[in-house]
Amino acid sequence: MNTPEKYTVIGAGHGGKAMAAHLALMGLKVTLYNRTFDHISVIKKRGGIELESAEDGPHGFGKLANVTSDMGEALKKAQVIMVVVPSSAHADIAKTATRHLRNGQIIILHPGRTGGALEFAKVLRAEGCTADVTIAEAETFIYASRSDGPAQARIFRIKEAVPLAALPAIRNERVLDAINPIYPQYIDGVNVLNTGMNNMGAIFHPALTLLNAGWIEATHGDYQFYIDGVTPSVARVLEVLDRERVTVASSLGIRARTGLEWLKMAYDTTGEDLHEAIHNQPGYYGIKAPATLSHRYIFEDVPMSMVPIASLGERFGVSVRGMDSIIRLACIVHRTDYWKRGRTVDKLGISALSVCELTRYVNEGSLE
């Protein structure tokens, strides 16, 4: 398959700007879309984004083919659509994009969190989209990056391997064939249940933030999040949440990585338990806590990561009392019903499916 030349990046935040600039530097025709034009006006005026990287990473001026806040214009010529926005915006992006999509386009969520592709597909169906598009999701974001200015981005690290899956999984090869020539880091993620259930942010982020709520508010995050914040008691809570996630995955026929296995894979870090393994990871030292409880670790990771895992657990008879406790704490702290706002099995359109039917849907695309 020929490598698509025309990419559209949706979202001009930290990740979207880094991806758009990198794609442009690789010689591709890139359109950058952002809903609010003010956020991209400087990029439009300059015609691109200045990218810097650590060590010998990609760097230079990434000249963009187009910069727009018009979704129709952004998708008109796109062959691959890279969605790089908070997962809480996936549904809105799907609604806005529906009438502009056309047969053969590939949409990739970076990342899907848990249930991202399922939600995106459900919204397209509800909006009456008839275009034969392929929706896929990455298990995590490929870059560690930040925005250094209105038309500047910096990449700190590019991950070496990122699982990716299409909905349905029979299209995995199609997506990988399209993007592997430029992104060889993406590997077969089996299916979107696998990528969603291996979402470690659901376990590490909300609980660690909420269980340190007093410290965060008192110090405005002036402490080491993963070192000072992960005491033995906090680590025991994380281990319970992790066991629940792995058990929910098992009820779906999935062998999910444990937190310890993930730390070994991602950082080559080991320990007798999560407390020891986290403290053995040098990269966690120096990372400060969120400065406020109004942070994506709660308002994104609870409804878009933890709620769908807990909802699947409840649907298939797995005890998720630990997750439910953290979700309810988040609801109290933010005065928000995250169960109502989150990606429940009802919202994902899969509440009536058995495990076999759900597996067939994510693998083959059949809802019948």
Distance between the termini: 31 Å
Tell me which CATH architecture of the largest domain applies here: 3-Layer(aba) Sandwich
CATH topology of the largest domain: Rossmann fold
By helix and strand content, what is the structural category? Answer: alpha/beta
The largest pleated sheet is described as: 8 strands, mixed
Low-confidence stretches: none
Mean pLDDT: 96
Helix content: 40-55%
CATH classification class of the largest domain: Alpha Beta
Helix and strand run: EHEHEEEHEHEHEEEEHEHHHHHHHHHHH
**What is the domain total for the residues?**
2
The CATH H-level superfamily of the largest domain is NAD(P)-binding Rossmann-like Domain
Structural commentary:
The longest helix is centred in the middle third of the chain and has 20 residues. The relative contact order is 0.11. Helices cover 42% and strands 16% of the residues. Helix 8 crosses helix 14 and helix 10 crosses helix 14. It is α/β, with parallel strands linked by helices. The two termini are 31 Å apart. The protein has two domains: 191 residues, NAD(P)-binding Rossmann-like Domain (Rossmann fold, 3-Layer(aba) Sandwich), CATH 3.40.50.720; 153 residues, N-(1-d-carboxylethyl)-l-norvaline Dehydrogenase, domain 2. The protein has an eight-stranded mixed beta sheet with strand order 5-2-1-6-7-8-11-12, with helices on both faces. It contains 17 helices and twelve strands.
Secondary-structure map:
Elements: E1 6-10, H1 14-25, E2 29-33, H2 41-46, E3 48-53, E4 60-63, E5 66-68, H3 71-75, E6 80-83, H4 90-97, E7 106-109, H5 116-126, E8 134-138, E9 143-149, E10 152-158, E11 162-167, H6 172-179, E12 186-188, H7 192-197, H8 201-210, H9 213-219, H10 232-251, H11 259-267, H12 274-279, H13 296-299, H14 301-315, H15 321-334, H16 338-341, H17 355-364
Helix pairs in contact: 4-5, 8-10, 8-14, 10-14, 14-15
